[in-house]
């Protein structure tokens, strides 16, 4: 176990941190993808998917609190040191991707607002402005001032979710909107599970600083579940009512004017900060002498530049790719930690080839379940199958890992 004396974060910190992370334009847009199911079935998929995803997310956070280690470092328990390097690289790529997606989505909203207010149409410039503000947010670090600023931002974001909800749901007829077809329940369920799942490689980066396990688990779980479900439902309702889940349109409809720009900026900062910071933490798993904050700044710059060229229309494929990688990965880690109860970081373990083989099989199964549009999506069956398979072969393979001989 790696001890860290800076265990200062309590329930409120995690509640605000993860609610702020959930209140994002990307989550609203994802909720809008579920519109073909109709409102009631869409909400059912959102809630069920988030229950499953948030439970898994909390479990990953518990490892961070118990062992006082970042999320990617915890993968060494099952996969070994070199195995964790693979996931560090994959996580850095997904976090840079998220940084780009968040900045791209926010810059598009900010540009729509500025066009209406001032006739200013410069989306690329907005991407650079938002990326620069994220850089400043990271530069402030984890000091007490940033904690207070984050809490203030979350209170403001909470207020705007109320306003957006009023705009979207003033017409109660959408609550009974029928399904239009074009999306299976399993696909919608998967898009709901994926969002909390995408935070799995990050959550322990923050829960390792918790005062205690209960406050971190409850604060993170409640904050993220409530915030993310809320954003999804707002996006779902907007897509059904106006065929447009774009947050800028909702805020302009609410006559928020200049305040709408501030809302876009706050939502981008509270979420993208987590992505960029954890990219630095993951990179430091491979190169521990590097400064996490400096790496996070570099990752933000890369993500910002990427936002200038990527296509937001590929967003759904990006989410599916994340689910395919992280569902079997954390099925193996959580099985090892909570069921097999192997909780030791072994410096001599370089790579567990059998764990990697089961993980690759899990990725293959994930896409098979997506292809057949299984009613429970892909994460749930893949998680169960991967866990059972790894548990059943563990007793035969635990000594097959490639290790350095102790001297």
UniProtKB/TrEMBL annotation:
One of its GO terms (cellular component) is plasma membrane. Coiled coil: none annotated. It comes from the Bacteria. This is Putative hydroxymethylpyrimidine transporter CytX. Keywords: Membrane, Transmembrane, Transmembrane helix. Belongs to the purine-cytosine permease (2.A.39) family. It is found in: Membrane. GO terms for molecular function: cytosine transmembrane transporter activity. It is a multi-pass membrane protein. The lineage of its organism: Bacteria, Bacillati, Bacillota, Negativicutes, Selenomonadales. The chain crosses the membrane at residues 12-37, 43-64, 85-104, 124-140, 152-169, 189-209, 221-242, 248-274, 295-312, 318-339, 351-367, 373-390.
